[in-house]
Amino acid sequence: MGKRDPRIDAYIERSAEFAKPILRHLRKIVHRGCPGVTETVKWQFPHFEHQGVLCSMAAFKQHCAFGFWKGRLVFADATRPSQGEAAMGQFGRITSVKELPSEAKIIAWVKKAVALNEAGVKDPGRSPKRNTKPVKVPTVIVAALSKNATACAAFDAFPPSHRREYVEWIVEAKTDATRDKRIATMLEWLTEGKSLNWKYERAK
User: Fold this and answer.
1) CA–CA separation, 57 vs 45, rounded Å?
2) Model pLDDT, residue 44
3) pTM of the model
């Protein structure tokens, strides 16, 4: 029997109206795919676990996101879902339940994620060989993120490589004006769940 987390109920209730049916639908499917799943909240987003993280979902102002922790492996021998406009996860910017793949397909991917975790398979993509040092976030970026909870949560949820891209882009600014403009852009994109290079990720 799966373990439900009341914090996810609260998360869904305070999400935008368009997002509520999407989040409820995804939650139901994950439980069907893994009856023993455990719910939790990490980086302020709902996560689903079974011997490790399986997947997560999130709601933003104008779209939802859903993705598998070991996405590369989950879709290694299967047709990758159509991403549409880039966002966190592997399903693009979700604005309605109709935009999601069929329940049967998602359940199959959930079961694949469960099998990977039960077998102890590691995702090499989450263990980068280069630049593995913790990302040092400058005070000016920390201060900006502290004023935007949604952007801060998205930043924390990204892998180190994505966080480092934002930090380096801002630090490399030649003037304070350019730096401030980049910080504003970062906050806008993070609020929408976008990485720095989101425009190019849709083609991958």
Assistant:
1) 7
2) 82
3) 0.64
